[in-house]
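Dear support,

I submitted the protein below through the web form. The confirmation email said the job was done, but the results page showed an empty box. After a refresh the structure appeared. I'm attaching both so you can tell me whether what I see now is the final result or a partial one.
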Amino acid sequence: MNLTRRTAVLGLDGVPYSLLQRLFQQGIMPCLAREAAQGAFLRMRTTLPPVSPVAWTSFLTGEGPGAHGIFGFTDLKPGMISTRLPSFDDVRSPVIWQQRPDLRAIVINVPFTYPARPLNGILIAGFTAPLLDRAVYPPELLPWLNAKDYQVDADIERGRYNKHVLLEELFRLLSLHGDVMASLLATRPWDLFIGVITGTDRLNHFFFDAAYDPSHPFHKDFIDYYRAVDTFVGRFREKIGSDTRLVILSDHGFTSLKTQVYVNHILRSKGWLRFKGESPALIDDVHPDSVAFAMDANRVYLNTRDRFRGGAVSRTEKIEVLRRLQQELRDLTLGDAGITDPDGVDGPGDLLFDHVLSREEIYEGDCLHLAPDLILLPRRGYDLKGQVNVTAPSAGDVFTGMHTPDDAFLIVDDPALVDRLPSPKITDVAGLVLKFLSQAC
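What the results page shows now:
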């Protein structure tokens, strides 16, 4: 008897539960709405910080950052205030297909799976994947992908200057990635499939102001893209068949962006941070006398001697210094930070951060010592950044949408899940997938 229930997971990067509710009500996504109505459609909490490398790794491992060791797009070099780029090789917990190496897996376009590692099946890594020949396993797939002019992600920098070109590329990549997934599903044996569409995240960053505004010049394009995603979902369901268990999820939510907030500028203005010169360019320019500094996204580190060579804060001082910094940030208002709400809704007396949490309040696991000392959850609409080469506490950006941790979604073809798991976290999903894979056909 075959003891494996074939299971497919489809990720829609950055799609918020609240937006789907609206699109379902308007009849814009009938295929996805049908999956939601026939199964469980749940609002899901994701990781802190709510960024793709952290969130997708937490989904794949069923563990939080304190266990798997990924805390952002960038990390710190050991003992140094200097950044490095972590990769799939830095993930310290086994992912789903490593937990079931007996099963044949196809993994397509999942963020933070670069460089591709050998597995019992196929892996084409998602962003960030600078070299396609290191993003693909087995390498025999490369000629086929090159013949298709395969591209992992849209050119975001180019999109900053030409939104029309960006939209064309997003539609093209949705079609390309859908064709690759469909071809592999049809021609290769598999027990587990995991595929992610990242264009939804890119669309939301650039065009979220168009989502709810029919008068916006890009509103129709925004809706048309989600219609195209829905068509892809419908064809995907047809391809995998009704006997295959299906899980659909996003890695974080989205909301409208008011302004970007530069946390290092604020720390510097409040006396917690110094730079080696007047015009810092990198986090490497933090002065050794500094008490604290920030990194993307939402992370604050104390410059402690037990973590950084030549650190300014001793082991005995750490608890008190951290307490004072945490309290000051909790009490920080928009006016204190020198930030004005561009929409005129929030006043100078409103707090900048909804929560300022210590790592012990959020994380647990063998990688806790690698975590930031504080995680900042900003007031809605204020997107936190770690740049040092800025001259003001905040500024506008071409982006109109930002990530949130509280409005991701989960759809599972199991209606009973509404009662069994009414408030899911992204770390719960791997367990569901592994359970489905163990069910008899």
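Response: this is the final, complete result; the empty box was a page-load delay. The chain has 16 helices and 19 strands.
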